[in-house]
Amino acid sequence: MEVLVISKNTIKPSNPTPSNLRHFQLSFLDQINHPRILPLIFYYPLGFEDNSRATNLKRSNQLKKSLADVLTKFYPLAGRVKKNLYIECNDEGVLYLEAQVNCQLSQIIGQQPINPHVELNKLLPFDRLNDAGDVLLAIQVTVFKCGGMAIGMCFSHKIADGLSTSTFANSWASAARAGHSNMVCPRLDSATYFPPRDMSCYNIKTGMTEEKMVSKRFLFNASAISTLKDKYANEIQPTRVEALSAFVWSRFVVATSDQVETQAEADVEAETSITKLYMLIHGLDLRMRMNPPLPESYFGNFSWVVMIMPRRAAASPWPPAGPLHIPSVSCIFQLSSL
């Protein structure tokens, strides 16, 4: 898949950010997050036959105008982080790329690429985990040969968690469809709940490197999802994501437990004293777990991580005698209603 970038712009809020809002304080959870990328890709098949240049230009202008409008509510995203303490909301803007690709959208969402991590990254404005620099949001709109569209967004984890990215995406979609009236107004006072601290002695690391990342894409239709939900149901009915996570994790534990090391591998492990662990990491939203609960409109980092290790790893001595080697496995779930 060859993607050609045809334009690169900076989209700024349609109205200047008031002077009293130009200093946005980071919360403690914002501070401890590395500014790595949170990527999202939305696919939009063409819903009508008209795939003319005039129609595509109209769609492009509508997206850019509505983005400028929604940035007036999510104004920190158009600013820049300063000294890991605050965001200078100077309306510097959001990076906005427009691109074309000479293939059908169905070829992307209906087939299994050889390397999905590489192919899907072509639909994002940044190629690597740490390419964002001080940009808090970048967007790439890619138009396919059939007229379908992919909108790739890269958020900095310094300002947003998973739910916050969805809140912004839904607000932008509402603004594009119906204008200002349907936009969600985010709550931007996360520092009130998690006050910032002196982080001068804290070394922030990503905890993973792209070179060790393995990606596979799995497609589950409605029937498969329903079967998995029934399989893992008990007193509480699992969600789609919970059922899929349980299935993939159970298969992963079985696969790693059945691996038989060669004598050479065993000798290397004995010499280096490296302990190999496997763990499942899930993001946990804190909004509904606070007292009193907070609505989903609270924007920022209101999440924590839960880490689980299988019994085989848990049975190993802890703490281990030598360094840890934790392989990274990334699964991309595509949920289908078909």
Automatic annotation (TrEMBL):
GO terms for molecular function: acyltransferase activity. Keywords: Acyltransferase, Transferase. The keyword Transmembrane does not apply. The keyword Membrane does not apply. Belongs to the plant acyltransferase family. This is Vinorine synthase. The lineage of its organism: Eukaryota, Viridiplantae, Streptophyta, Embryophyta, Tracheophyta.
